[in-house]
User: Fold this.
Amino acid sequence: MKWVSHQAVTGVLAYAVTSDLLFTAGAIFGAIAPDKIEGKREGLFSIGWRSRHRGWSHWAVLYVAAFFALLQYFNIEDVQGAILNENSPVRLLFAFLFGALCHIAEDALCGKVPTVTPNIKWGVRLFKVGSLREYVIVIVIIIAIYLFKNRTFLSFFFL
Ligand SMILES: [Zn+2]
Assistant:
């Protein structure tokens, strides 16, 4: 997926889940983090890019572990409260991790991502990155999230 697609899908999903603009902004930053961590395909840091591509930077286990480490460190029992409370010290970090996990799930729709280890990968290839099909699928996902969020609107038609 192109970064704009990652950011659009993740941003819409984050806002649908939290109805919070700051959380959404943090998630949009996280939505490109795995690729930023991975480094560039061209230029000075391109050496070994192929082997690093969608390696440990795209390993969901690390982001989930970071989430639990934050829970432990800040002694958080109420996760929803920590996400929605404006004074929560970890609110933006949670948003960032949420965005990164969305990125990995989205990448699994157009190639393979790590599963139980960084080297055991899984994914489907619904579209080629940057293709028209990618943008159509992104729009369909966004509409699906919108409709799911507004279920009462749907029930008007289906009941
Ligand atoms: Zn990626």
Residues 34-35, 54, 58, 103, 107 surround zinc ion (CB under 6 Å). Strands lie at 113-114, 121-122. DSSP finds nine helices and two strands in the chain. The mean pLDDT is 90.
